[in-house]
């Protein structure tokens, strides 16, 4: 389809170049019109044939002869380092019947919940919401 389009365009351009060179046809000069049409047809056929006979360019294809295998590099893995854990003093607080906002309540809630906010008395639960610390 692409070659056909090229040939048609070149035929029309050749005819557009050739036809104005002929004079205007008189009432009895039908032979000149036929001659101009024949010249345009021949010119278009010659140019279209020349375009169609052009060799096509194709991309070169690279084929890898054989894959090369390399030895895998060693993976660095650090050795574990053992450190003694600091001993924290466990404070046991009876959680029953603690009144909010007392020192024992603060102590219990801050030990029980890592996200305890002492100003609001709340902690962030696993659901992502804030909950009021109730000791009991």
From TrEMBL:
The record's similarity note reads:
Belongs to the BA14k family.
What's one Pfam family the UniProt record gives for this protein? BA14K
GO CC terms: membrane
Task: Give the function comment from the record.
Answer: Has immunoglobulin-binding and hemagglutination properties, and can bind to mannose. Essential for virulence. May be involved in LPS biosynthesis or polysaccharide transport.
Signal sequence range: 1-27
- Write down what this protein is called: Lectin-like protein BA14k
Location in or out of the cell: Membrane
Please indicate if the UniProt record lists Transmembrane as a keyword: yes
Keywords, A to Z, come to: Cell membrane, Lectin, Membrane, Signal, Transmembrane, Transmembrane helix
């Amino acid at each position: 389809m692409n070659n056909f389009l090229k040939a048609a365009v070149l035929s029309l351009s050749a005819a557009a170049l050739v036809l104005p060179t002929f004079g205007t046809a008189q009432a009895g000069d039908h032979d000149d019109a036929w001659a101009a049409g024949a010249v345009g047809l021949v010119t278009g056929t010659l140019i279209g044939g020349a375009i169609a006979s052009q060799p096509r360019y194709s991309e070169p294809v690279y084929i890898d002869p054989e894959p090369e295998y390399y030895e895998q590099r060693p993976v660095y893995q650090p050795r574990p380092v053992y450190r003694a854990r600091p001993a924290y003093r466990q404070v046991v607080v009876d959680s029953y019947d603690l009144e909010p906002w007392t020192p024992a309540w603060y102590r219990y809630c801050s030990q029980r919940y890592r996200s305890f906010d002492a100003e609001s008395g709340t902690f962030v639960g696993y659901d992502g919401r804030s909950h009021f610390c109730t000791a009991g």
